Amino acid sequence: MPNVSKVLIVGGGIGGLALSIGLRRAGIDVEIAEIKQQWTVYHVGIIAQSNLVRAMVGLGIADDCVAAGFPYQGLRFCDANGNVMNETPGVKLAGPNYPAFLGLTRPALHDVLFSASKKAGAQVHLGVSVAELRQSESKVAVRFTDGSGREYDFVVGGDGVHSQLRTMLFGDHLQPRFTGEGVWRYNVRRPPEIDYGSIYATSEGPKAGLIPLTRETAYIFQIGPEPGNPRFPKNELADIMRERLKPFGGTIGELARGITDPALVVYRPLESVLVPSPWYRGRVALIGDAAHSITPHLGQGAAQTVEDAVVLAEELQKNGPLQDSLQSFMRRRFERCKFILEASLQIGEWEMHPDPKADVGSLMGRVAQTVVQPL
Ligand SMILES: Cc1cc2nc3c(=O)[nH]c(=O)nc-3n(C[C@H](O)[C@H](O)[C@H](O)COP(=O)(O)OP(=O)(O)OC[C@H]3O[C@@H](n4cnc5c(N)ncnc54)[C@H](O)[C@@H]3O)c2cc1C
Question: Domains plus CATH for the chain?
Fold first, then answer.
């Protein structure tokens, strides 16, 4: 018998939906409370690295994700003009039938996660959040923002970087901080030769990348300093993104000329927070960006989030005291996420303040060795 039988997940993002699939596969009843009235997932893409592909296999959704995305084999590191300096083939961690990397649009990933969650029997409440949580020895009583109330054996906050559950559990001192950088993204047509992920680096720090998403599309990103965390007028976003890409030539330089529709530019200031261990109080726990918001420098945020979901689902279905499962969850997750989060922040620091002693290759190598470890 699993040590919980009815779980509430707050937040129907990547982590919340992934956890719902894992728990339903173990026969645990799941409800999801998602604050959005309807699903709105912004249109640019996500890089699923091999450890995320492995976690997708664990949830039984990898084939659908592969069918919805663009599998590719590795990364090319280029200078600002697109001359290839170094090529790193990825590791097929999920086995020979699955790719080392998978580019996916975020809506495509959401569709796979949501339909698997629904098919597995998770119940979703849209437009609802938690107004109050009260824990007793054996239950969590939840009052929702629509006035309804129910009891659960366990509650999980998968409500993202600005998590309300994190504040409810730990107070408001653990807030995400702006790291000093921002990311610009735009979908473009995929040139046929772009069947690898490409990262372009300037010697001054900012980077750009081109990632295949489908047979027809790819996305361009630019990451670099945005001093003072500016807010940009919406109608100027395309002009500003083209300006940010001016130092880059090669294929990205050519494709950048096609960035013309400000409504299709997605800009995000980077924010990060790490909740110290443990990420739970009693019968309420955090996963994903709510616990550890990893900046995109290593393309590991969603990967670590889905790994959280896989591990928590495994732990919650064990026999034995819940506390043992939660301690085991933290043993398996905390140091790994902390190391990757700190490595991401370090790479961002080096982009903002170039340091001749910086050894990005060695740090990325240590991250690569970490993520291939079993969960
Ligand atoms: C620019 C950028 C690029 C990235 N690229 C990559 C990449 O290539 N590869 C990768 O692995 N990771 C990437 N990431 C990281 C990845 O997007 C996150 O780590 C991942 O989305 C975290 O999932 P989550 O479920 O914890 O949070 P989210 O995906 O943010 O989901 C949170 C959900 O909770 C809901 N919610 C919020 N508040 C409440 C509330 N009070 N009540 C109920 N529901 C609520 C939200 O509406 C949302 O649906 C990137 C991040 C950024 C910023």
Answer: 6-44+107-175+272-371 (3.50.50.60)
